[in-house]
Amino acid sequence: MDEMLASVAETIENFVTEVPDINTINKHIMIALSTDNNNKINWALKDKQELIDIIETVYRGVRKGRGLVIAPKDYSTKYRY
């Protein structure tokens, strides 16, 4: 996961610097990934674009003042075989 974050750092750099008041919200930003846990990703992502999409979704939610955002993709294990 660290290598994935390092590889997308330049792409998501603007998301991090454009929302300076993200720390003043003073709460976790939760993302509904269709799993039981809404505040962490505990599996390996397939590619860089998938991580960028998740970060962009969180960025848009924070800009609107939301504490819970919906993931761009269903990550439940219901349809995995």
Automatic annotation (TrEMBL):
Subcellular localization: Nucleus
GO CC term, one of those recorded: spliceosomal complex
Name the domain of life.
Answer: Eukaryota
Q: Name one Pfam family in it.
A: DIM1
Keywords linked to the UniProt accession: Nucleus
Q: Which GO terms describe its biological process?
A: mRNA splicing, via spliceosome
What name does the UniProt record give this protein? Answer: Uncharacterized protein
